User: What shape does this take?
Amino acid sequence: MPYATYADLIDAHDEQYIIQLSDDNKDGIADPAVIAKAIASADADINARISNRFAVPLNPVPALATSLSSLLAIGILYSRRGMDKPDAVKEDVKAAHALLDRIGEGKANWGEASSPTADSTSLDVRMTSQTRVFDRTSLKGF
Assistant: This one.
């Protein structure tokens, strides 16, 4: 299941630009195969950056993953046309990569109550100790 949809891309960027970036046959309509490939590439990028900490593909998909997939897919659409990305898109892609790296390192989270983790086991550590044989008063004078 892809992390984002065409509607998510439109929410993240102007629809006319998305149509221009994905309309290979010049009919004025976004090519669904091109969009799907860009989203799949973005999802693969996300999975690669977080796979050391999370089971991938993510299920359920956190809202942040949908947003990041959309931003990365838009960057991929610009790149496939050989066009220079607008500064805002460059910054979005850079910020998305930085956040994904932090999530993968455990320094950030998805911002939701529960996240699917690769290591779902919980370790409970309990320590007990005996009473002290020697203390300050028993060693006084030595």
